[in-house]
Amino acid sequence: MYEQYIIHTKPENTVENGTVTGFQVGAKLPYYRGLGISMIEDVQLTIDGKAVAPENILVVLHGNTYTLKQMETEPEDRWEFGEVGTIKVLQPGGLVSGEHTVELLFNLRVSYMPVNAIRKYSKTFMV
Amino acid sequence: MADIKRGVSLYSFQEEYFLGKMTMEDCIAKAASFGANGIEIIGEQMVPGFPKLTDAFVDQWFGWMDKYGTTPVCHDMFLDFKKYKGYVMSQLDQLQSIIRDLKFANKLGCKVMRVIVSTTPELMELAAPYAEEYDVKMGIEVHAPWHIDNAWMKRHYEVMEKMNSPYLGFIPDMGTYTKKIARIIVDNFLRKGASEKIAQLVADSYEKGVMAEYIVGEVRSMTDKPIDIALAEQARHNSYTNPKQLLPYMNRIFHIHAKFYEMLDEDTEYSIPYNEVVAVLKQGGFKGYMCSEYEGNRHIHDAFVVNSVEQVRRQQLMLKKLIGE
Predict the structure, then answer these.
(1) Which of B75, B77, B81, B82 would you mutate first to test chain A, the one with the most A CBs within 10 A?
(2) Do B169 and B159 form a contact (C-beta atoms < 8 A)?
(3) pLDDT at A70 (0 to 100)
């Protein structure tokens, strides 16, 4: 459900104060309603087959930035239905120009489902 | 005016909304253009900032209702009792969550709230006085694979009878009358690599009424391909029961989810025999809204452009004819 919409924009290098600190992708939540952030149990990003360490992933939603750890305890703020969030990967130097394959996975704890919904999508881009 | 009224759950247009092709106002306008003047909404789907409601939004909402001649009918609530990892919310906190949604429904002028099927009868009992306070009827959604006569619904019915409150009842989802497994679901599995032979077997066996356990068992004996097993398990997620089963409960039914997967034309839903169900609803004297709930989107959007508007248009025409407007 909604898997093919997970990756909304292609990866771009993140430039902060003139330095490339990593890269980021625009993303949408693969679910049919908004969810409180604490129910997004996990976000995993794999770049060219290599998994990014959880501590190097940040999620930015309407100006609020969360580490995966911080997301666990944020029940009020929500990732709205259809909202484009940004997944930032801390990786000094970012991505070199060329072809890159991104896989993005969301693990959603939806209360009425007996097991979590795990949805992912992979796409190759020219960066 | 016919006893049975028509409405649309804006859920039906979720694909276009998600992709930014339709705004909430567009969704309301489309529903109205089909003569479906009852509006149902999932607050958590289309109201940014849920559960907060700004005065500006509420004004706009009622402004749209005036502009398009529509009426707010139902808010669909969720109960996130697993808000934190490894922790299940206390019953008191769950009750607070329900009250939050009752207030939300009340502010938007909805007289009915869809209660998600996993909600316990005990919670319904605790929440009943608040439903009365906010003047919002709470209907437990009778969603496949549950059906109105199974054990869970029987427990709910016992609470309804015990409380003897007009604020508690059922919202049957027409997905419980899925006579044939939606071919768009089967096709989706085929695109994901399920075998033709298994697909045929599952679709045929389901239609014959073979029990899901037998279908899954037979498929397991033929293959261990996970996608084939998952397809067989579709038989477990769907249900078909005799619609006459609704008749003893008519005094507890105040709203209907007109779930559908695929309108072939303006008369026929591929899976659900609407003519049979609407006939029973008429016989039982149902006087509430039947709200379109298009759910084909998620099964086809991997391969096709979804046209929810056309699907809802067809279903509304079918309902209009069957209701006898």
Answers:
(1) B82
(2) no
(3) 98
DSSP B255-285: EEEEEES-BSSSS-BSS--HHHHHHHHHHTT
pLDDT band for position B48 (cuts 50, 70, 90): confident
> Do B250 and B161 reside in the same domain of the chain?
yes
pTM here is 0.95
Give the mean pLDDT of chain A.
96
A2 and B46 within 8 Å at the Cβ level: the answer is no
Residue B1 has pLDDT above 80, yes or no: no
Torsion of CA A77, B25, B68, B8, to 10 degrees: -70
Domain with B75, as residue range(s), is: 5-178+241-323
Same structural domain, B31 and B162 = yes
**Per-residue model confidence (pLDDT) at position B56:** 96
**Which of A116, A90, A87, A117 lies closest to A104 in space, CA to CA?**
A87
* 8 Å CB contact of A4 and B79: no
> Could you say which residues from 90 to 149 on chain B have a Cβ atom under 8 Å away from some Cβ of chain A?
116-118
ipTM summary value: 0.94
Domain CATH for B15: 3.20.20.150
Name the residue with tokens 């599952």: B202
* Nearest residue of B to residue A112, measured between CA atoms: B118
CA distance B78 to B88: 15
Answer whether A17 touches B (CB < 8 Å): no
